[in-house]
Amino acid sequence: MGSADAVPGISGGTVALIGGIYGRLINAITAITPARSLDLLKAILPIGFGISRHRAKLILREFDVIFVATLLTGIATAVVIVGRVVEYAAARAPVLLFGLFFGLIAASAVILWRELTIDTIGQGLAAVTGFSLAFVLSGGVKLFEGGGLTVVFVAGAIAVSAMILPGISGSLLLIILGQYIPMYDSLNSFLDGLGGVATGGAIEAVITPGRDVFTFLVGGLLGLFTVARLIRRLLRRNREATLAFLVALVFGALRAPIAELSGNEEFNWTVATLGEFGVLALVGAVLVLILDWYAIDIDFGSL
Known about the structure:
It is a single chain. This protein is mostly helical. It has a domain at 91-302. The chain is 77% helix and 0% strand. The protein contains 15 helices and no strands. The chain crosses the membrane at residues 63-83, 95-113, 125-144, 150-177, 189-207, 213-231, 243-259, 279-296. Keywords: Membrane, Transmembrane, Transmembrane helix.
């Protein structure tokens, strides 16, 4: 799930479905409510009726904490590893990196299109809105860079909430918002800074990137427990229109990898770079199609 969530075009939610843990994951997330969290605090702190280990164990079992902690550890490990690869590729082989991303996104868009039917004007408008929004934002991927912690917070809320929806890539939304590479830069700088502090380095190297990482995680937690619930509610109320918006969003985002390369002053489109871009796009598409083969029984109506 972590590897899937870390690259655009592949959904960690899809991997969870393939692995047979999606239902358990959703149950664990929905079990964590403000009321139950307050009950847990009352059970482990000397307030109210005092400490109750039995009640705390029951609530923690409802939250499925062992499962969630194990899953999050695996996801975090994969995200860190993929982050190093992305940082290296973005600096040394951007054509290959964004060619791969283009293929991942394109194949995902085609696969999602199979699940979509547009029968009404409302559904058509939702699709046009989704495509236009992603297309415009993807064309100016630098638009939100330097937008401060507010943009980082919003990006975290949107991306993490999307990561639990099968077929929808949280990393893709980060690319649309222009936060994909910057967030990985911050994460890697933060980890490097921690390593430096452990060996006697200056704490200042941790503070700035750590602030970005912390803000992103806080936004992600908020998104996980609010935006994700909102999206699921919209899917239940008007599934076709919501899916039309989300799928069109993926199509519109196809502009992002091309815009990212074209915006690089040191890059020029040539026959050679087009060939490299195309080959890696094909590789990315094949990877998604293989994943889709194993996820062929995904039912979007159950979301």
